[in-house]
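A sample copied in:

***
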Amino acid sequence: MNIDRFLEKLKTDKKTALNERDSKELLRAYGVPVVRETIVADKDEAVKVAENIGFPVVLKGLGSAFLHKTEQGLVHMGLTTAECVREAAISIENRAGSELEGLLVQPQIEGKREFVAGLFQDELFGKVIMFGIGGVFTEAISDVTFRLIPLSETDVNEMLQEIKAKTLLGSFRGEKAVNRDQLIQTLLGLARLGIQHPEVTEVDINPLVIAPDGNICAVDAMVILSEKSNDKRFMPPADPKLLGYFFHPRSIVFVGASAQIGKWGHTLFSITAGGGYGGEIYLVNQKGGTIAGRKVYKSVSEIPGNIDLAVVTIPASGVMDLIPHFKKKGIKNMLLITSGFGETGKEGEEMENNLVNAATEAGIMIVGPNTMGICNPHINLYCTGSHVRPRPGSTAVISQSGNMGTQLLAFAEQQDIGIRGFCGSGNEAMITVEDYLEAFENDDLTQNVMLYIESVKNGRRFFENALRVGKKKPIVLLKGGRSKAGNKAAASHTGALASDSRIFDAVCRQAGIVSAERPMDLLDLTAAFSSLPLPEGDRVAIMTLGGGWGVVTADLCSEYGLNVPDLSPELVAHIDKILPSYWSRSNPVDIVGERDFSIPMIIIEELLKWEGCDGVINLGILGRRIFFGRLAESIIKADPSYPQDFLESAIASLNEFEEKYVDHIIRLMEKYNKPVFCVYLATDEKDKTVYRVEGSKYKGVFYKTPERAVKSFAKMYQYKRFLDRLLSD
């Protein structure tokens, strides 16, 4: 079959949908096993062919206009006699009318299992492959998974593992396991078809019937063509080096500076100047005068020095007038805090587009508009609408919500999580999340990336950049706006089953992005990725101060797909020498509330050196000082004569132990290159998530609940699997 000639003829005939026979012939050429069938012109021919094939047979109406043949009454199955075939043919002819192109006779394919496979064009991400449970209940069950093309064999194998009913791929009720090679080649063939023929915008194979011997057969298929170009116009990529100037300005001008507390022009200047920024700061307000003892220029053209970054807070209506002044002054970077642009509706969109065009022509890059600001703790640059000053670190943060972003920074500051840089990307009129990913990719100080996003401008570029960045450093992402209301209208099951959130989730899995479900997950995961070694596998050793806590954590591990292996006899023998005879001799290891400070130190090293585990979850060591402090208060109230120096000495010992314990686990992680996820027994205002030891590349990470520790372990292992998959492809 000459596919190019075949599709060219269809385009010449101005067909937008292929009939079932043509659809299957096209798919057969791409390695999809399809049912043998015969086209006939009328009921008499149908009977002859049916008798040749052997009963039972299936009779269908053929026509490119019939996109939903079953619902239209154009499919008759299980026909066992010539008379049944004749009656079915008459019924089809009556229902189909002039759009009937012929009758299709097929053998009745027997099989208890049915799947669906397809391809469709997503508006944001391009061609997508779908696989899942098929048949008449496809949409009701909605057990499907997706991947962008191109596909690797590893991608396909992951898809087969992701459907909930994956057990149907194995042996089932006396029928053999599905021929996985056929299934893999079918999905890879669909991907090749989508790449080689952009005009094919939708393919629906439903059902893919699994015969008792495990072989697959496409008994129905539909292919839709489109002459429309799917190429959208996007902003050209921002040069990562130029974008870097926003985070490393040597001089800043605040355009719209104000002396009035509460105004953006006062807040941003005050936070920046008060945060220790070492570059030059200039103020501009058309009224002139002074603010905070500094001269206020009426225009940027009056400023004597060079300007690397302009922070703009004047009303939206006046921003366009700044462009010629900035161009003349040589200002290349504008941080546009001002709102009132694309987020307000059609008029605002037009104003935003006009501004972008003018800025592009003038060689000016704009972050925003409608942004909460930017920060780079490494140079004490804190230029954000909220007063947050996290410490320097390795986590780059981009947030499409300014409020969400600054709240995340506030949590990071509180929990001692270091930040490489932050930007509230705002409306992303010129610089998009795809650009930030590219900029952070080769930034040596960035070790992991945290994203809060609600949408992306260029889906395919986002995917490709994330995949590339993810090979070097983890991306942790929280997606806002995950509503099910975004289901797309489409002609097939394939398109109808897709939604914005499903496709986005598939993109994240394929690109190795670590997805967070809640805002605090972002901080938990970022703390783990920036502080701990990656686990090599999914095997967890649990050390707990109490039995029930360990049981709950083991259950959580099972829930999140982690393995809690049995202890080896050798390890049990070692621990027998340390713990009382009544210890559990199992994983989780309950240290039975022992108060000897050396015991948790020894046990955790025994677990880390054990070859049977890939990391340790440690429950309840830190926080005992809090309970003992409260106990000491009660003792003094109950017995004022009790020696206070003894109680104070005990509290001091506990504090000293906790400091030593943190140092100990960090040193052990360096020694064994395995992560330790810790959970507090109790917390107070002094406690934080991340603890540092001078000179160590690792840090102690402590969570308030076992679930947060387990989830972080599971997500780190997920990312490690992604890296391993890249090596195997």
